Write a sequence for this structure.
């Protein structure tokens, strides 16, 4: 049972049903708002939750910095900001709200003393699912060529939906993938590794979907995702062994064809301002960018 604001409790597996029911009643477009995603990152971001009016506030505490992810709020903006600002002040911190959707941002933008800014590094990339499966037309020419190269070079490859029995294989692949990239020496990759292991270790309980590609009996690619809303499937993880041209295109196509063909859209999350990642995500021709905003007191540093 989640407490009422201003009390918070850490997110645990036993909160799954109540939070998933809440997300089902108020479907999200922003990728952060699934139980599996919040649970996977809870150890890195110290996610906690509280009921607030008609919504939920998710508290994120990272390196001593507090921020909140407000979800499902329909209340008037001014009293919301005033009450949450007071909570931050009581802890000697400036107000900081992250992953604010466009509707709430528009309401808050009129509140005196509050700055609302687009958070481009965290915009979600949304694609038409069938386009990513088919890779038809000139705009996907390069991707289709890479896929065809993989199919020619690895005619005996096998795509396998992830099951509880195959999780250990997926865990070993993640270890190898991180060893190749020295994940422990790169903070972002180290944190991501922790989140991926949480998704895999709790695969059955979290009810996510996954898929992997094997070449000569060896796992070379892994992906994990889940429905975000009735129209959209979200991809949380997509990893492939380096130096195999077309492998990313193959795991993307096969997983979506097997698991997300009934969805209109695919949300492939944000690029975090990483130039290479931004270039890669743009190269798949997004149909839409889901905007997110940061809300701070004027002059706040976050």
């Amino acid at each position: 049972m989640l407490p009422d604001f201003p009390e918070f409790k850490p997110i645990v597996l036993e909160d799954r049903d109540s939070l998933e029911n809440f997300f089902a009643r108020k479907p999200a477009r922003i990728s952060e708002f699934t139980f599996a995603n919040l649970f996977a990152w809870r150890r890195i971001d110290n996610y906690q939750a509280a009921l607030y009016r008609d919504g939920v506030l998710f508290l994120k505490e990272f390196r001593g910095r507090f921020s909140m992810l407000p979800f499902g709020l329909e209340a008037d903006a001014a009293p919301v900001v005033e009450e949450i600002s007071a909570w931050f002040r009581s802890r000697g911190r400036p107000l900081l709200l992250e992953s604010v959707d466009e509707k709430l941002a528009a309401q808050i933008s009129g509140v005196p003393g509050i700055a609302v800014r687009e958070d481009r590094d965290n915009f979600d990339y949304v694609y038409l699912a069938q386009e990513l499966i088919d890779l038809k037309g000139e705009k996907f020419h390069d991707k289709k060529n890479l896929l065809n190269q993989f199919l020619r070079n690895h005619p005996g490859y096998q795509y396998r939906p992830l099951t509880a029995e195959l999780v250990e294989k997926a865990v070993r692949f993640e270890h190898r993938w991180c060893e190749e990239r020295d994940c422990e020496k790169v903070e972002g990759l180290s944190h991501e590794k922790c989140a991926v292991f949480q998704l895999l270790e709790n695969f059955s309980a979290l009810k996510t979907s996954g898929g992997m590609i094997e070449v000569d009996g060896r796992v070379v690619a892994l992906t994990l995702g889940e429905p975000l809303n009735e129209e959209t499937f979200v991809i949380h993880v997509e990893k492939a062994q380096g130096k195999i041209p077309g492998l990313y295109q193959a795991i993307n196509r096969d997983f979506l064809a097997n698991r997300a063909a009934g969805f209109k859209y695919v949300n492939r999350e944000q690029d975090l301002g990483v130039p290479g990642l931004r270039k890669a995500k743009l190269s798949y021709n997004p149909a839409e960018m889901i905007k997110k905003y940061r809300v701070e007191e004027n002059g706040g540093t976050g």
The chain has a mean pLDDT of 95. The two ends are 30 Å apart (CA to CA). The chain has two domains: 9-123+292-297, 124-269. Residues 124-269 form a domain with the Aminopeptidase fold (CATH 3.40.630.30).
